Amino acid sequence: MGFFDKIKQGLKKTREGTGGVLNSVLANFRKVDEDTLDELMEAMLLADLGYECAEKTTDELRRRAKLQSVNTREELTEMLCGILTEQMTPNTGLKLDTKPSVILVLGVNGVGKTTTIGKIGARLAKEGKKVLFAAGDTFRAAAAEQLSIWAERCGADIVKHAEGADPSSVIFDGISAAKARGVDVVICDTAGRLHNKQNLMNELSKMARVISRELPGADVETLLVLDATTGQNAVLQAEAFNEAAALTGLVITKLDGTAKGGIAINVSSRLNVPVKLIGVGEGIDDLLDFDASEFVRAFFDGGENEN
Ligand SMILES: Nc1nc2c(ncn2[C@@H]2O[C@H](COP(=O)(O)OP(=O)(O)OP(=O)(O)O)[C@@H](O)[C@H]2O)c(=O)[nH]1
Ligand SMILES: [Mg+2]
User: Fold this and answer.
1) Shortest-distance Cα residue to atom 10 of ligand 1
2) pTM above threshold 0.85
3) Which residue of 6, 118, 201, 211 is surrounded by the most CB atoms within 10 Å?
4) How many angstroms separate the CA atoms of 301 and 298, rounded?
């Protein structure tokens, strides 16, 4: 299946739900007047784009439509896609050039951190890279077990400690093992509990300190995983984590399970952090590189031209 088809299939629910509403506004459109803009604004709010982003988009549409005539549905769709794409921070991909480099994976309970690590590990292994997982979720014994299964599946090494160990010590040992074994990428799992913000900040800065002390100058991707099905809650999580850690990218999971894929646009435009990857299923291959323009197009494609 091609890349665009995979996004389209993953976003099926979003296209049918939100895309359907937007497309019916677009289908009935004659000219860009205040009624059309109101209807589009409403549809974008339903899509979980958030008030700020929906308003910015509407204002920009109004402005551009005055400068350039918009007569057809295609022209309006084109203009709208362009504006939405520009609101998102461009995805420059994962930067993992040093050996080893590190990916630190953060996020609240159950968003899909461990699954995403498995998918990223499998992808890197396919590219011929040597991968090591550091089981930094020491909160639950089952967490390290789950990560071990993924490690086996994609041929990655794993470093784990007993339940209750200090996550930073797991990361320290993971990095030491990586240096000794010539590993290319260390991927660190973390526990999902948010507890309170001060705790979160302390724990995250301790992990970051260990990494920068042990691997000065190394490429470090700090990825926040967000569950698309949680809608506006994902925005709050993103804001909290963005204050506590220097995020380099977002991963939006479970886009296959929601009609509200607009959350990807919302979060990226608010935080100024690029969405780098999206999850569109539970399988090992259900991880896609995020491309803002393709995403927006798939999102609007109502399904009448399925090919
Ligand atoms: N449909 C779908 N399910 C997903 C996706 N990503 C993860 N999941 C599922 O979400 C559930 C939770 O995933 P985990 O990877 O365990 O999440 P986690 O963030 O590590 O959870 P904790 O370790 O408990 O904090 C699992 O059942 C996954 O299969 C996705 O992109 N789509
Ligand atoms: Mg986990």
Assistant:
1) 112
2) yes
3) 118
4) 5
